[in-house]
Here is the input.
Amino acid sequence: MALKDVKSRIASVKNIQKITRAMEMVAAARLRRAEQRIESLRPYAGAVRRMTRQAAEAAGNVPNLPILNEHESEQTVAILLVTGDRGLAGAFNSQIVRAGIRAGAEYESGGKSTVWYASGRRGVSSLTFRGREVVESYTGFTERPAYGDARDIASDLMAAYVDGEVDRVDIIYNGYVSALTQVVTHEILLPLQEASILGEDEESEEESSDEGDAHGHKALVEYEPDPEEILKRLVPAYVEISLYRALLESSASELGARMTAMRNASENAGDLIKDYTLQMNRERQAAITQEIMEVVAGAESLI
Here is the structure.
């Protein structure tokens, strides 16, 4: 490789390194805000979960609400993949698509049919490339999802379930653990009984202690209007908040994955620059040695 080509490659890699460092800094700044949004959502999500369970217990048997009715058989399963609109985030998008395809194959091997929903352009394009028809796609908000985005998705999924178009709804997304760790999470969204919305959760003991007095007696709750009417409003709210939490988790995971990927890219660019610089110095040294040998040879020819 000519010396000029090596210098050109070093300049190109340095420009790429500047871009990756800038993207890393932007992702890090946005990640902190995403973490704050998740922390702010948790108390509200926990309160909705607690109120839904209490209303269901007060109503006695689960009321005859279409969204709460379990279908006799699960022949059609809807799978919602939550991905990003952009790439450059390592395996963030690909691992969700792989998990979704794997889950769909398991359902189909059991004689069930699958329908696909996707949030994020990467998920839509990946499913289309693999020959899966996407019933509904939701794009343009993956880095900063709003509650209205979750409401739109929840409305479509609940309508499909109530109308009998699907018998079960699964959601697959990247759960946020830290900037370095994102866990592929597979949850059942509908039917609600399988999603354990009407059951106990990990906060039940803490909630019980909060609701009771020092002697462990729980406060009497009066419902106005009746518990069934309240449950009609709480259940859709819970589905929406569950989806919103998944969107926020995925958003934070995407930023964390991108920050890590860009940091690794910057470090790799630095290694390339060192290698190319070493190669350039060798080429330069070889050129200088060649020139000295030519000068010496010319001087000897004159003697």
About this structure: DSSP finds six helices and five strands in the chain. The first helix runs from residue 3 to 58.
